[in-house]
Amino acid sequence: MRLIGHLIPTFKSFVEGLSGERADQPRQVLWYDYQLLIEHRVGEIHGDLQDELPELPPERIKRLANKAVADSIMRAHFGDVWFERMYEATNLHRHAQGFFYPEGQNEYLDELTNYRKQELARRVHQLQFADWFGLVHDAVKKDYLSGVAFELDVALYLMNYPLNVERRDASLAAGRDFDLSFWITVPPKAVEVKTKEDSTPFNARTVSKTVKTASGQIPEGQSGFLFLRLPPPWVGPGLEDAYHEYLADALTSTDPTSTRYRISAVFSAVDKIYGRPGNIAVSRVWDLFIADHCLPEDWTLALRLKQLYDANLTYMAPSTPF
Length: 322
Fold this sequence. Notes:
The chain has helices at residues 11-16, 27-52, 58-88, 107-126, 133-142, 145-158, 170-173, 204-215, 239-250, 296-310; strands at residues 165-167, 180-182, 189-195, 224-230, 263-276, 279-290. By secondary structure, the protein is of the alpha/beta class. The longest helix is centred in the N-terminal third of the chain and has 31 residues, at 58-88.
């Protein structure tokens, strides 16, 4: 295929390849020009596939093009060795386990893995514009992908609001601080991000322990948001009612000084797998739970964030490549 000629460059390599007056343009202008290039490259990949595989339906062409773009993004940023170890290896690297699954074992897990790989590539591409992208690059390359990927999802979720978001340097906090700063206030709103492995059992103890750990990372005297990714196996009849009951209990305490009261709202995400063999799909579903002790300004902000996402008003965040 001619796709090899249409690799997706990184923003850094794009800027380094410029010269003269064009290289001196403001960063926002360079990012806009870069996005135009990416749009063109993605269109070329899609066109090549249509030309070479005319017998395939448009939806199949789109799936192949999306995979080609996602793979190209991750290779460009992290190199062939990392890519083959994390994205293509039969025996999954330990940093990918519990997030990706070996191909061919289960059609539902294959689709979930494909979805997660492409979403991670989207986030890496989108966050290149952030001045803290170096932290993103290092985290994806060195840490467990499950937690890192959801942190990036949350950063983009917050970026739907026209305010600055920063990823905090975990190496400086030694695991005792929150993950993201959301500059809606001064000091910024603390945002803690947690993921539950797909094999985690659904019960009150699991939810309570997660809330307790997260609340201890919100600074004393402040309120913050908890973002939590739930395992797909938790999806089922009665999940929402039982889960909200567990959250309500987890966010209260007989001790009025408990750190649990520092969390004012919990945003929960789950990758829902649906359909039948041969026609399986995955979609991200978000749930918002407001604590009884939530401050009015936190309630308004949390609700606004959820409304922006639900209405697909995501144009304030960096655009996706596919």
